[in-house]
TrEMBL record:
Lineage, opening ranks: Bacteria, Bacillati, Actinomycetota, Actinomycetes, Mycobacteriales
Residue ranges of domain Endoribonuclease L-PSP/chorismate mutase-like in the record: 5-143
PANTHER family cross-referenced by the UniProt entry: ENDORIBONUCLEASE L-PSP_CHORISMATE MUTASE-LIKE DOMAIN-CONTAINING PROTEIN, ENDORIBONUCLEASE-RELATED
InterPro entries linked to this entry: Endoribo_LPSP/chorism_mut-like, RutC-like_sf
Protein name in the entry: Endoribonuclease L-PSP
Length: 151
C-alpha cells in the first residue's frame, strides 16, 4: 500500500503546502534526500494554538500538533518529489516551545514519530531529536523538520 493510501486509510489527508512565513522554501532535494524546512502545525493557514507546552498548551494537545506538523512536512515532500518516491524516513527534528519545568519533549514528538511508523512501516524507522526551546515562530507550540530518502 502506498504512503498516500495509508494516510487515507488512517482517516487523514495531506494538507496544502503551508506557505513560508519568511524567506525560504518548504522543501529541497539534495541528491537522494529531501529536507524540509521547519513545519508548524498550521491547519487551513492558521495555528490551532499558541503558547508553551506545559503552560498554555497541554502535552496531549502538543502531541496532536506534532502529528499535524508531520502531515505538513509530508505535504512539502509530496509537492516536491511525490510522497511515493520516499524509500526511507531518515531523521526527524522536533522543537517544543516549553514551559521552564516541562521535560516531556520526547513524548510530544512521539506524535510525529508514531504516525511515521503507521504510514511508512519499517521504512519509517528514523533517528530523532526532541528539543525544548523558549519560543518558536508565531508562538507555535511545536515545529518539525524532516529528512527523507527518495528513489
Amino acid at each position: 500500500m502506498s504512503a498516500l493510501s495509508r494516510i487515507s486509510a488512517l482517516g487523514l489527508r495531506l494538507p496544502d503546502v503551508a506557505a513560508p512565513v519568511a524567506a525560504y522554501v518548504p522543501a529541497t532535494r539534495v541528491g537522494n534526500q529531501v529536507w524540509t524546512s521547519g513545519q508548524l502545525p498550521f491547519v487551513d493557514g492558521a495555528l490551532p494554538a499558541t503558547g508553551k507546552v506545559g503552560a498554555e498548551v497541554s502535552a496531549e494537545d502538543a502531541y496532536e500538533y506534532a502529528r499535524t506538523c508531520l502531515l505538513n512536512a509530508l505535504a512539502a515532500v509530496d509537492a516536491g518529489v511525490g510522497l511515493d518516491a520516499v524509500t526511507r524516513v531518515v531523521k526527524v527534528v522536533g522543537y517544543v516551545a516549553s514551559a521552564p519545568d516541562f521535560t516531556g519533549q520526547p513524548g510530544v514528538i512521539n506524535g510525529a514519530s508514531e504516525l511515521i511508523g503507521e504510514i511508512f512501516g519499517d521504512a519509517g524507522a528514523h533517528v530523532r531529536s526532541a528539543v525544548g526551546v523558549a519560543v518558536l515562530p508565531l508562538d507555535a507550540p511545536v515545529e518539525l523538520e524532516l529528512i527523507v530518502e527518495v528513489a
